[in-house]
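Data card: per-record layout.
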Amino acid sequence: MSPIRAIHFDFDGVLADTEPLHFQMFQEVLQGEGVTLLKEDYYARYLGLDDASCFQQVFTDRGLTLDVPQRDRLIQSKNQKVLKALASRNFLMPGVPELLKVLHEKYYLTVVSGALKSEVNKALQGGGVETCFRLVIGAEDVKQCKPDPEGYLLALKLLNRDHVPAADILLPHECAIVEDSPWGIQSARGAGMPCIGVTHSYPRDHLKDATRVIDSLSEITPDLLAALST
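The structure for this 230-residue chain is written out next.
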């Protein structure tokens, strides 16, 4: 097997401690529509979805109709709330800037997130690590959110098109994915890429389909990445 040459990171709950923030803003926006969202329901059913899918699924689960203009209004409202919060402080996980600055010297790094790109970029800029990544894939860049593999396959395609020498193209098994949810791990498997599950949002038994499971990003070392190739 070829060695790992690229690392695709999920964002919320992996690089940034923003899963609680997204839940809070979903909850606030939905309350304005007379819809209650409980924390246990969010983590059980909706955390891995992009904004459009989350709002749609919440309404569907309650037997409510959500048309496209209303859905887009809710997405915009949540986006503005999230951006305001991201501007207030650095949400990156402890040790993330140091880790990324080491990894980006050896690996092609990307972010593949179900969040809107404006939110991811705001948080990366707030943590001073935006230059560590070759590209960022956000919810608006794909037609299908996770667990569909479209986002990871698009990241591979764009890396090969814009960043990797034509004579040395990346293959799926040369890309490691770092995820914190079962939806993300399923997406990685669909893309044919080894996946590291990190227990930031769910316990180990929820991440059992990952190639490796870790408790901290500090465990992402050259040895761990090399082991993914064996």
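Known properties of this structure: The chain has a mean pLDDT of 95. Residues 19-86 form a domain with the DNA polymerase; domain 1 fold (CATH 1.10.150.240).

See the next section for split statistics.
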